[in-house]
Amino acid sequence: MKLGLYSVTYLGIWYRGNALTLTELIKTARKLGYDGVEIDGKRPHGNPLDWPANRCKELRSVADGEGIEIHAVAANNDFSCPAAEVREAQVAYVRELVRMTADLGAKHLRLFLAWWGVTLHPKLATYDIMENLWPVVHAKFSAEEIWGWCREALSECSRYASEAGVTLALQNHRPVIKDYHDVLRMVREVDSPHLKVCLDAPLMLDKSAKAMGEAARAVGPLQVLSHFGGEFERRGDGSIRGFERNDGVIGGETNQYYRDFVAAMRGIGYEGYLSYELCHQLPLVDGNTVGIEFAHENAKLAAEFIRQLFNS
């Protein structure tokens, strides 16, 4: 398996301070020991409106020079909106991301079925506003109707991916998708060789070793991309502890279920990327959200932690 750095970590919306440019991101990834980068498909990083073919090729040259692979692009798309014109705009967005992915020489474009979005109100990013609106907007429509809209849009995007030689990776991400069974159902219904799976351990409802193994065997060779997240700290004995933070509260440790997930991926012969992402509201220190140094420290420790699991 290979270690990726997902650029949302340095998008400049979760910590105080500016985003890294993609050139800076690539150099940071090399410095911290990552094998590749995954580019978030929105400003200030990877909105396709900002990345014509010539600029993509220039960035690819930078990455090649640093020995870093641009292995994926990540869409922030929502195919579930009841308004047809919104869904059509989302298809147009993904079609441009497919083109950008190909121009960057990346293999995979990560997709959602549905996504509530991020707001930058009042100062830093939050999921809460749009996440609370999503059920209101969809309240008058059945689950199967919403599913059908998503399938129609994803089928069209799979055709564009086929034309460009790009593989789409459908992530097991809420709100339409509940677990990997839903991902596999959609992949079967779309029935395209250019639609595969992005199974992420943190998004699984059941994080037991048994569930990790069952999910891995179910997706099998369809698995082409994965992510891990959370925060990390070095203990007094030198070991690294991973943990989750929800609504500012430190939750359970991630060490064991990441260990189980990596073992499950190894069991199915997965040799693709596991990309680190820091994409949640971060802690306050003296009343202020932490700065970019917090992202640096966590990206560094995350790389060291996962390398240990890869080598165990």
Kindly summarize this structure in a few lines.
Helices cover 43% and strands 19% of the residues.
Keywords:
single chain, 312 residues, alpha/beta, TIM Barrel, 8-stranded parallel β-barrel, 3-stranded antiparallel sheet, 9 helices, globular
Protein described:
- This protein is of the alpha/beta class.
- The protein has a single domain (2-311), classed as TIM Barrel, CATH 3.20.20.150.
- Helices cover 43% and strands 19% of the residues.
- The chain has nine helices and 13 strands.
- The protein has helices spanning 22-32, 53-66, 84-104, 128-138, 143-164, 180-190, 209-219, 255-267, 292-311, and strands at residues 2-6, 36-40, 69-74, 108-111, 167-171, 195-198, 223-228, 231-234, 240-246, 249-253, 273-276, 284-285, 288-289.
- Strand 2 (36-40), helix 2 and strand 3 (69-74) form a beta-alpha-beta unit.
- Helix 2 (53-66) packs across helix 3 (84-104), helix 3 (84-104) packs parallel to helix 5 (143-164) and helix 7 runs parallel beside helix 8 (255-267).
- The longest helix is centred in the middle third of the chain and has 22 residues, at 143-164.
- The protein is globular, with a radius of gyration of 19 Å.
- It starts with a strand and ends with a helix.
- The mean pLDDT is 96.
What CATH first level would be assigned?
Alpha Beta
Low-confidence stretches: none
Please, how many helices? 9
**Radius of gyration over alpha carbons?**
19 Å
N- to C-terminal distance: 12 Å
Task: Quickly give the structural class.
Answer: alpha/beta
Q: What's the number of structural domains?
A: 1
CATH architecture: Alpha-Beta Barrel
